[in-house]
Design brief:
alpha/beta; Chitobiase, domain 2; six-stranded mixed sheet; 16 helices; 31% helix; 18% strand; binds acetamide; Beta_hexosaminidase_sua/sub; Glyco_hydro_20_cat; glycosidase; EC 3.2.1.52; hydrolase
Length: 507
C-alpha cells in the first residue's frame, strides 16, 4: 500500500498488534522524531509491553535519508544513520497502520532510500494567498509522500506575500489587488472581488520550524527581475518608469513591468534577499528569473548606459547579468541561488554554479546538465499541476492536459542523466508546480494536487521498476487514507473561465 513504494520491501506473515496499542520507544537522540511518530499514531493506553523502537545508528550505512524498518510479531524497530532517515521511516509507519480496526503493523522488512535528493512541490501563494493553516496541512501531506522541499512562490505581479522590514508598502499596497481575471490570460472577464493577504516573518519562521520537524525545508522564491508588478505598485522608483503609477496586476500572463538596473533596484534586492535568508535557513534560495521581457530596458537610457558600461552587446543581456549579480550576493551570504532555466537571452549565459529549475521541455533540463548546472527537473508537460488532469468539464481553464499517467511516466533521469550529489552537475531532483491563477481556495489546490502529487513522489523516491497498473492498485487504498486525513476536497470543485491556448513548447 505504501506510496512512494520503498526501494526494498519483504512482506512476512503476521502482524505486530500489542494489546494496549502502538507505543513508541525513543532510542538515544531520537526523541524529537519519536514525538512526531507518536503524534501520528492512535493514542495507546499506558502499557509497558512491546513497542516501536527508534534508533540512530550513525555508522549504519543507510545514507543521509535512508532507513530500515523491521516489524515482527514481537516488536518493530526503525533504524537510520541520521534524523532525516528516521523521519522518512516514520512516514512509512504512518501508512502501515490500518485505517480501521485495532492499531497494528504488518510484519515486514523494509530497507529504503530515495532515488533523488530534491523532491519538491512549488506552491504559488502570490496569485492566490493561502491561509497559513493550509500551508501547515500541505507540508504534512508532502512529508507523508516523502517530499523534502516546499518551494514557496512568494511574490509575483499579482501579489507580494512576505512582510519586509523597512519596506512597509510591499505588504500595505503590494499584497492587495482590486479584482482578478476570470479565465486564462487574455480573458476580458474580471470578478470584481478584492483579493490579498501576506505572511509576517514570524508566521513564516513558524512554518519553517513546523516543516523542519517533518523533514521538509521551505525554499522561498522572490521572483526577479520580472514578475515584479506588485512591488512596483508599492515602490514605482524600483522600475524603469518611476513616474508611472501601476496598480497591483489583476490580469494573468506576462507583464512588461520589470525592475530597473539602477543602484536603488539592487539595494532593494539585497535588502529583501538578506531578510529572506534570515527567515528561511534552507541552503537554497530561489531568485526567479523566468519570463522577463526586456523591452523596458531597451528603451531606458539608464539601462542602455548600464549595458554599455558592462560591454554587453544588447540590453537583453542584462537579464543573465542581473541573476549572476544576485547569485554572487547570495554566495556571499553562504547560500546557493536557484533560478528558472530560461530559453532566449539567458540560455547558456548563467554561471554553471547557479542551480536551475528546468521548466520548459524536458530537453532543456538535459541541456542545462550538459552546460554544467545542477538541475531540478520540472518540465511543464509532466510537472505543472495547474494544467487540467483530464478532458472532464470543470477542470482549470488551461488547454494543456497533464494526466496522472503522464506524471507517472515522467522520468527525471530519462536518457541516462546523472544524479547530482549537490556538488557535481546533474539532476538534483524533481518538483511539481502548483501555480494558482485558477486555484483561489485550498480545495482547488487539493483537487489539482491529488493524486498527481502521489505519482510524482514515486518517480522522485522509488526505483523505476514498477508499472502504472500496480501503482493504481496501491493508489486506491492510499486515496482512502488521504480522504481520512481530509486531504481531498469534500465536494467537486469548479474552475471558472474560458480555456486558454496551450503553452508553446520551445525547441
Ligand atoms: C514559469 O512557469 N514561468 C516558471
Amino acid at each position: 500500500m505504501i506510496i512512494p513504494h520503498p526501494a526494498r520491501l519483504t512482506r512476512r506473515a503476521g502482524s505486530f498488534a500489542p494489546a494496549g496499542g502502538l507505543r513508541v520507544l525513543a532510542g538515544r537522540g531520537t526523541e524529537r522524531v519519536a514525538r512526531l511518530l507518536a503524534g501520528y499514531l492512535p493514542r495507546p493506553s499506558i502499557h509497558s509491553g512491546p513497542a516501536i523502537r527508534l534508533d540512530l545508528v550513525p555508522d549504519g550505512n543507510h545514507g543521509p535519508e535512508g532507513y530500515e524498518l523491521d516489524v515482527t510479531p514481537t516488536g518493530a524497530l526503525l533504524t537510520a544513520s541520521a534524523e532525516a532517515g528516521l523521519r522518512n521511516g516514520v512516514q512509512t509507519l504512518r501508512q502501515l497502520v490500518p485505517l480501521h480496526g485495532p492499531p497494528r503493523l504488518p510484519c515486514l522488512h523494509v530497507r529504503d532510500a530515495p532515488r533523488l535528493p530534491w523532491r519538491g512541490m512549488l506552491l504559488d501563494v502570490a496569485r492566490h494567498f493561502m491561509p497559513l493553516e493550509f500551508l501547515r496541512e500541505f507540508v504534512d501531506l508532502l512529508a507523508l509522500h516523502k517530499y523534502n522541499v516546499l518551494h514557496l512562490h512568494l511574490t509575483d505581479d499579482q501579489g507580494w506575500r512576505i512582510e519586509i522590514d523597512g519596506r512597509p508598502r510591499l505588504t500595505e499596497i503590494g499584497a492587495w489587488r482590486t479584482e482578478s481575471m476570470v479565465g486564462a490570460a487574455g480573458s476580458d472577464v474580471y470578478d470584481g472581488v478584492p483579493h490579498g493577504g501576506f505572511y509576517t516573518q514570524r508566521e513564516l519562521r513558524e512554518l519553517v520550524a513546523f516543516a523542519a520537524e517533518r523533514g521538509v525545508r521551505v525554499v522561498p522564491e522572490i521572483d526577479l527581475p520580472g514578475h515584479m508588478r506588485a512591488a512596483l505598485a508599492a515602490y514605482p522608483e524600483l522600475g524603469n518608469r518611476p513616474d508611472v503609477r501601476l496598480p497591483v496586476w489583476t490580469a494573468w500572463g506576462i507583464s512588461p513591468d520589470i525592475l530597473g538596473v539602477h543602484d536603488g533596484a539592487f539595494a532593494f534586492c539585497r535588502e529583501v534577499l538578506a531578510q529572506v535568508a534570515d527567515v528561511f535557513p534552507a541552503r537554497h534560495l530561489h531568485i526567479g528569473g523566468d519570463e522577463c521581457p526586456t523591452t523596458q530596458w531597451a528603451s531606458s537610457p539608464l539601462a542602455r548606459a548600464k549595458a554599455a558600461e558592462l560591454e554587453l552587446t544588447d540590453t537583453a543581456e542584462l537579464h543573465p547579468w542581473f541573476l549572476t549579480e544576485l547569485h554572487g550576493f547570495l554566495t556571499g551570504l553562504g547560500r546557493q541561488a536557484v533560478c528558472w532555466d530560461e530559453t532566449g537571452h539567458t540560455a547558456g549565459r548563467l554561471p554553471p554554479d547557479l542551480v536551475v529549475t528546468a521548466w520548459r521541455d524536458a530537453a532543456h533540463g538535459a541541456l542545462a546538465v550538459a552546460r554544467g548546472h545542477q538541475v531540478i527537473m520540472a518540465p511543464h508537460t509532466s510537472t505543472y499541476f495547474d494544467y487540467r488532469q483530464s478532458e472532464e468539464p470543470g477542470e482549470p481553464p488551461r488547454a494543456d492536459v497533464t494526466t496522472l499517467r503522464d506524471v507517472y511516466r515522467f522520468d527525471p533521469l530519462a536518457g541516462g542523466l546523472p544524479v547530482s550529489d549537490g556538488t557535481r552537475p546533474g539532476v538534483l531532483g524533481t518538483q511539481a508546480q502548483l501555480w494558482t491563477e485558477h486555484a483561489p481556495t485550498p480545495d482547488h489546490v487539493r483537487h489539482l494536487a491529488f493524486p498527481r502529487l502521489c505519482a510524482l513522489a514515486e518517480r522522485a523516491w522509488s526505483p523505476p521498476a514498477r508499472g502504472y497498473a500496480e501503482f493504481q492498485e496501491r493508489l486506491t487504498g492510499h486515496l482512502e487514507r488521504l480522504r481520512a486525513l481530509d486531504a481531498l476536497p469534500k465536494e467537486r470543485v469548479r474552475f471558472a473561465g474560458a480555456l486558454g491556448v496551450p503553452r508553446k513548447t520551445v525547441p
